[in-house]
Amino acid sequence: MKEEIVKFRRKMYERGLIGELGGNLSLRDGKKIYISPSSVPVSRFSDKDVAEISLDGRILWGKPSIEYRMHLEIYRRTGFNGIVHTHSIYATTMACLENVLYPRDVEGEVYLGDEIPVIPYRPPGSEELAESVAKEIERSGSKAVLLEDHGVVTVGENLEEAFILAEILERVARVAYLCALYEG
């Protein structure tokens, strides 16, 4: 499990979805989750840095990301088993513009639906952010949300699906940006 967190965090960095210190990801395994930490550079990140938390919020091992509350709340409210949180450039730009993102291409619509909602700004790591994101995912059934002035959250049946959706979302945001430039 920990190796999967390391593998996908590196992929997030290699694909430009996060910077050296940004973003986080987790996966659920029964009644606990494995989650990346905050402020550990990708270049030094190893399975020893992956934290473990029980679904009731007890830290079992390590120092989890400050966004652990958001991950826990999503797991408590949904059946998803993988979560990816990125600060990817184009999707975060859309989140900063506070625009609901409407996929303009077939792939985006197929995998992300007709619209990707924007969660109003809440401080990173806060209970308010955790509650807002989890409620919207639960309410809308969306597997992707934009966090105003912050970034992106995608969820999946497993970590691979959440990662793939984060990549698709970034491409959808890039297409929307380029279309807006062209359309003037």
Element string (H = helix, E = strand): HEEEEHEHHEHEEH
Count of helical regions? 6
Q: What is the overall shape?
A: globular
Structural class computed from helices and strand pairing: alpha+beta
Low-confidence stretches: none
Percent of residues in β-strands = 15-25%
Named at the architecture level, the CATH assignment is: 3-Layer(aba) Sandwich
CATH superfamily: Class II aldolase/adducin N-terminal domain
C-alpha end-to-end distance = 47 Å
CATH fold-level assignment: L-fuculose-1-phosphate Aldolase
Q: Characterize the biggest β-sheet.
A: 8 strands, mixed
Q: Strand order within the widest sheet?
A: 4-3-2-1-5-8-7-6
Overall tally of domains: 1
Q: What's the overall average pLDDT, rounded?
A: 94
Helical fraction equals: 40-55%
Q: What is the number of E strands?
A: 8
Q: Radius of gyration from the CA trace?
A: 15 Å
CATH class membership: Alpha Beta
Explain the overall architecture.
It is built from six helices and eight strands; from the N terminus they run H-E-E-E-E-H-E-H-H-E-H-E-E-H. By secondary structure, the protein is α+β, with helices and mostly antiparallel strands. The chain has an eight-stranded mixed beta sheet with strand order 4-3-2-1-5-8-7-6, with helices on both faces. The model has no long low-confidence stretch (mean pLDDT 94).
Summarize the structure.
With 184 residues, this protein is an alpha+beta fold. It is built from 6 helices and 8 strands; from the N terminus they run αββββαβααβαββα. The termini are far apart.
State the main characteristics.
about 180 residues, alpha+beta, L-fuculose-1-phosphate Aldolase, 8-stranded mixed beta sheet, 8 strands, about 40% helix
